[in-house]
Amino acid sequence: MPKPRTVVLMTREMQDRVFSEHHLARLGELVALTPARDDEITPDGQLSAMTDAEIILTGWGTHALSDAMFDAAPGLKVMCHSAGSVKHLLPPGFAARGIRVTSAAPALAVGVAEFAFGLMLMSMKAVWACIAATNAGRWEREPVMDWICEPHGATVGIIAASSVGRELLRLCKTLSLKSILLYDPFVSEEEAARLGVEKVSLEELMRRSDVVQLCAPNLPATRHMINAEMLARMRDKAIFINTSRGALVDEAALIAELEKRRILACVDVTDPEPPAPGNPLYTLPNCILTPHIAGAVKQNIRRQGASVVEQVEAFVAGRPMPCEVALDRLDILA
After folding, report:
1. What pLDDT does 30 receive?
2. What is the rounded CA–CA span in Å between residue 287 and residue 257?
3. Residue 141 designated active-site
4. Residue 224 annotated to the active site
5. 164-178, 203-217, 269-283, 285-299: least confident range
6. 81 vs 63, 101, 146, 199, 207, CA distance in Å?
7. Which residue in the list 292, 302, 313, 324 is annotated as catalytic?
8. CA distance 17 to 102
9. What distance in Å separates the CA atoms of residue 40 and residue 49, rounded to the nearest whole number?
10. Per the residue annotation, which of 13, 29, 150, 273 is the catalytic one?
11. In the annotation, is 203 catalytic?
């Protein structure tokens, strides 16, 4: 039986970042692989490369896939995306074509959740204030004690049971927390019970949590879901962590709340990125601002390549692909 013709629709540079030599060798065993070209791929080049393909491998740098491109590949069965969201790549009405799609979003989520979890532990121990003091030549313990909130007996609120939210939930369960709250309108009470969380409203989560972790997708409905009203509900000395997208937070409202010195925020994403020079987020002592590093950088990118290989292996073997995208739910996915 001939191997399915498979085309990498990425630049050679991006292919080499995502796939190790081992990954490419394994793909070569499974499929008839046309690797990325050395020159920059163009929309016309994509259309030409896709002709007669059965599997396409996409990722960062892949151009939006038009109806004409899919028309040129009538035998296309699977698109394996080596990054997160696929929404920007697919034309309207794509689901009717019957082409299956996978995403490396769950692989990406691991690194994001690990980063968010690390920020949480460092913040709960008031490490940022301690570093500022020792960098200034001071040895201070008592001044930060009121800001320390040990995980034992604390309450963590997770906004959205996304891929990141679920991975973060798994990490949080390694701690002796008092409770884990979840706000997600698409999760039923039964599923929340299976996840081992208490499903609550967003208002209640903001009010009760010692740490709020924002893990929701960037959708029109979630824009500025964290606004002045929600931030005002947070308890004094609570911690707000955003590793999702900046558009979910009313930045002006967050800055106003931080200027009260009442809460601490860890912000890895802003809207726009980067923040304009002079933005208070750069200098507020109770704001830990990082340059969008929670996601895939360096070694973590190879997780995405491994995920693609796993999907291709499953497809070739006739097994369910573990990271297949539910195209009928695309409007609520990131």
Report:
1. 97
2. 11
3. no
4. no
5. 285-299
6. 12, 7, 46, 32, 38
7. 292
8. 19
9. 13
10. 273
11. no
